[in-house]
Design goal:
The complex is a heterodimer.
Chain A lengths: L1 H24 L24 E6 L4 E7 L18 E5 L1 H4 L9 H8 L6 E5 L5 H15 L3 E6 L17 E3 L6 E3 L7 H6 L3 H9 L4 H11 L20 H19 L7 E5 L3 H5 L7 H12 L3 E4 L1 H10 L5 E3 L2 E4 L1 H16 L5
Parallel strand pairs in A: 3-4, 3-5, 5-8, 8-9
Antiparallel strand pairs in A: 1-2, 6-7, 10-11
Chain B lengths: L5 H21 L1 H19 L4 H20 L5 H35 L14 H16 L8 H9 L1 H4 L7 H8 L9 H38 L5 H32 L17 H7 L2 H12 L8 H20 L3 H24 L1 H8 L2 H23 L3 H11 L10 H5 L4 H16 L4 H14 L1 H24 L12
Helix pairs in contact in B: 1-2, 2-6, 3-4, 3-5, 3-6, 4-5, 6-8, 9-10, 9-17, 9-19, 9-20, 9-21, 10-16, 10-17, 10-19, 12-13, 13-14, 14-16, 16-17, 20-21
The chains are: A alpha/beta, B mainly alpha.
Chain lengths: 352, 492
Amino acid sequence: MLRKSLSVVLGLLTFLFGGELLFRALPVSTATSTDYYVDRNFLTYPSNHRWITATGWDLRNVQHLRANNIGFVSPRDAVPDRRAVALIGDSYVEGSMLDARDRLDQQLERRLGGMRPVYAMGSPGTSLLDYAERIRFADERLDIRDFVLLIERADVRQSVCGSGMTEAPCLDQQTFALRFERRAEASQAKKILRHSALAQYVFSQLKADGGRLAEQARLQFSPATTKKSDPGANQPSRPAAGACMKTVDAVTGMFLERAVPHVRGRMILLVDADRNAIRHGLAHDDPCRQRFIELMRNAGAIVIDTDSLIRTHYAASALSVDVGPYDAHLNRLGLQLFAQAAAAALQQPASR
Amino acid sequence: MLFTTVPFILLFLPLALAGFFLLGRWRPGAAAGWLFFASLVFYGFWMPKLTILLVGSVAFNFMIGLQLAQCSRASREGRNWLILGVTADLGLLAYFKYANFFVSNFDLLFGTRWDVGFVILPIGISFFTFTQIAFLVDTYRGKVNEFNPVHYGLFVTYFPHLVAGPVLHHAQMMPQFAQPSIYRFDGGNFTGGLCIFAIGLLKKVVFADGISPYADAAFNPADAGSLPGFEEAWLGALAYTLQLYFDFSGYSDMAIGLSWMFNVRLPFNFDSPYRAASISEFWRRWHMTLSTFLRDYLYFALGGNRHGSVRRYANLATTMVLGGLWHGASWSFVLWGALHGAYLMINHGFRAACGAVRCQRLGGSRVFRIAAWSITMLAVVVAWVLFRSETLAGAVRMLRGMAGIGPTQSPLPLLWNAGLHLHAGLIWCGTLGVIAVLPINSNRIGLRVLDRVRADVGARWYLGTLAVCSVLFLLLVNTARSSVSAFIYFNF
């Protein structure tokens, strides 16, 4: 009996240590350790933090990343500089799945002829109200005047408390009053597991989560277990127009209230379009997006509706502007279109 | 039901095993009946309506078998029963698998507009039909002695092999079902089987599914009308070559492992085919049970090599073309079979021209073996292009790309649109290619593990725990993904 028990324990340990060694040898995503390091209202990585990122169970698009002195992914440290441009957004700006030279900050800097440094301030899974906090930070700490924001289609919606993407300021779902929902400190167990490559693989690469796994397992009980890729699978779902109009008004109003006092130069918005619909020739009409663009234009921002850029691109080329069917982020080509448009706007003489 | 899913691993398999061994302690016949029933549930989970077809086919063939057994060997009456049985089996296969193919070609040829409607292909129909034809032929030849309906039903429907092989012979299976010992739990066999199952699961979930996007990235657009570039076409063809091997051999390993858990031994289906240095060696190592079936029941039936070299080559070609058609109703499968038939003719022709002594001398040369292996692999990879392509036009585009008659663009458009990188694909191909040609394969590992766990209780618990953890982890990987991929051979 003792021998059997020892054999079972040994088998279990062999699996755990073997798995740990295997995943340490593979480029599994390592811990990002985000926290409120440089400002109490938005998350960043620790200064000069180095980590690995990869996509999916099969570890695609591996990148070795490094945070700059203010905790954003950028090869350039941020120092106060009036000429600099702050590039703000979420994972689209961070572009962690792309080579450094292909990310938006690098492409924009090249488009500007290297005359103006571009400080990338992108952080995954954030929201429009987060961006306002970063604008404030860039103004107060880095003396920045010009801002380029890449607005992803879910950014407004994600500014509502409880969206799962709010880590500081957000608007109450019912009253649209401003609240601060800061992320709770990681548990001790999570802090320990961050150091395990096996645990990182399970939670970061497989995104193992009880509810999601149960749902996936439930689907396997259906005879039609094979699923073709859906052209819209990676796109965020669109809420009903009536409900989202109120949200757009409230979130945009709050954003302008918090951000505009800190914009001493230009605020250029690159508003992402429904690329999937454009590529597949599907009809798409998003009144909430149009409303957002209208409000921002009325407030004096330069809004670049990328719909026409994407449309023009697909009229001339079959090359996708998405990272892949498995990842709807913009790839090098898509960001090239965006960088080109942002650079052109920045090179225009200031009107205010 | 797929071997790689939660319903199978966490529900069906434990219940099937528990019922089998609990009933086996009481009455072996009841355990066999339980396994027969479980196999029908396994099949019905996917295609509930078509289970009736499977049961009907089993009952019909068993009945014909009984009639044949009552006739004297090679009698006229027996011959008539055999013709009836084989015709009905082939008729069923012709309707469900080939009706659309024949009618559409007939329409094309004669300008008619016949329509048989949409015919659903019952999973595994090729496997259970051929298995039963072999049973009828052998009964006619007087080689079958046992006619237990439950054992026969179990032999045909036995769930580990039902939908994608190995192609089983009644002589391999029915004597095993007649042994009372298989109905008693054996810890050694169970653990050994679990380890082999884990190896197969790894091959499928990680290796085959990991490399498949690189194959799909080239083949799917080629079928849709895009012309792949040189690098894309070669990467796609190599990726598919490896995907198919790890997918199908993974399935076969899982089937073998599952069977060992039930104390039943299935024949090996693969033996490192990509180590082959000739096409005939390749066919001795690839889908071995189908090769044996085609040899025994088609090539030999056509006369084999008994009527001179010209007839022998014609028989080889016919066997391979029909083997191609067995895989599916399309011209690309026919051409794939014909191409392999041509390869085999060249191979045998070369050996005949060289003579036995010179062939043996050449075989001893390292340079010759490397050259022979390279030519064999090239031939196999080119043929897989026909096998994988959904359309002949797609296959031609792929082959044009491989020949360098394609666009030279940067970035490579097909890979770009799939979000894939050439270097990552080459790493996959290189790694899996090395694993595929390693001298030690899963058959040998499985046999070693079986020996070890049978002899040593400590090793049994140690490896058993390791295998359980590995299976659960691979199940987690498979479940966490957005889609579950079926086995390629489920289509045949």
